[in-house]
Amino acid sequence: MSSNFKLFYTSNTEKLGKEVASILNVPVGKYHSQKFSDGEVFVRFDESVRGQTIFILAQANMPYSNLFELFLAVDAARRASVEEIICVVPYLPHSRQERKDKDRTSIASRVVADFLQDVGVNRLITIDLHTNSIEGFYKIHVDHLDTSKVFIPHIKENFQENLCLCSPDFGGLKRIKKYKNELNSDMAVIHKERLKPNQISNMEILGDVSGKNVVIIDDMVDTAGTLCKAADLIIQSGALSVSAYCTHAILSGNAKEKIENSALKNLYVCDTFPNIEVNDKIKIISCAPLLATAIRHINENKSIKEYYEG
User: Fold this and answer.
1) What is the pLDDT of residues 172-215, one digit of tens each?
2) How far apart are CA 277 and CA 11, in angstroms?
3) Can 192 be counted among the known catalytic residues?
4) Which residue, 126, 134, 130, is CA-closest to 60?
5) Considering only Cβ atoms within 10 Å of each terminal Cβ, which end of the chain, N or C, has fewer?
6) Does the domain spanning 148-286 belong to CATH 3.40.50.2020?
7) Architecture of domain 5-145
8) How far is Cα 131 from Cα 171, in angstroms, rounded to an integer?
9) Between vectors from CA 235 to CA 234 and to CA 241, what angle results, nearest 5°?
């Protein structure tokens, strides 16, 4: 494609950044970052960006130095007189803290939105926010992508018979219905009662999964406790198999061990996080084509919605 923009990526995003650049057939911009002995981050653009539209791709997961490097990169670009800064952040940190669930608590996703806008971001591309309401924290344009365009073809290829889609909660029903329309499958939902974050007291399946190859669809997998309990319950309810497609592989604590010991046949995740450790059950489906298409459509002033409808 013709390039009237420049593409950069932050220090921990090399693999995904090179894959996106390869799909777009554009060079990667010259960018330098380093961490001093005390932990401070330093960044610098090693080529002119004056008057340019630039895309900065950042896997801004924990630790916070990854997110802060993105803030510094945006600031450096702004001070170098760029025309427009478009941040591509596949996983947006703090997306599960979008409201006050108790008195005297912060709304962390709003804080992240304020930081990104105040430092000078003109537009944001992200994937599968935990809730769409987060878009309302931004005055800049947010391109909220979903992984259906990469997950659905994979499901079609690997699950031809007795398919039943399952949402892990009622909040994911809208997502599941979109998949159901494309895959013409049965559908179920899990009702769960939560004691506190990452701890479930009770769950039950609404829908018939007996004799089905069940596929759970979710936006993220963190400790994997809920996912593994759901998989075990589904198998106990007579399912032939259970697999899961989760966009963001946070996989904190002993999540990998839980997955290995669960009834899950496979867990498919996107590479929105760097350095995901794959094994016999955890498989990666690249989000690079999705991000590259969004960048291409923005650069050519084409509707991203057309990509999903095409």
Assistant:
1) 888 898 899 899 999 999 987 765 655 556 789 999 999 999 99
2) 19
3) yes
4) 126
5) C
6) yes
7) 3-Layer(aba) Sandwich (3.40)
8) 9
9) 100
What is the band of 107 on the pLDDT scale with cuts at 50, 70, 90?
Answer: very high
Measure the CA–CA gap between 145 and 150, rounded to whole angstroms.
11
Residues sharing a CB contact under 8 Å with residue 234, sequence separation 6 or more, in sequence order = 166, 205, 209, 214, 216, 242, 263
List 15, 192, 281, 283, catalytic entry = 192
Q: Delimit the domains of the chain by residue range.
A: 5-145, 148-286
The residue type of 181 is: N
Give CA torsion, residues 283, 286, 287, 289, to 10 deg: -150
Domains 5-145 and 148-286 share a fold: yes
Dihedral Cα 180, 289, 303, 24, nearest 10 deg:
-170
Measure Cα distances from 203 to 141, 190, 266 in Å: 38, 7, 21
Q: What is the pTM of this model?
A: 0.93
| CA atoms of 270 and 33, how far apart (whole Å) | 25
**Stated length of the chain:** 310
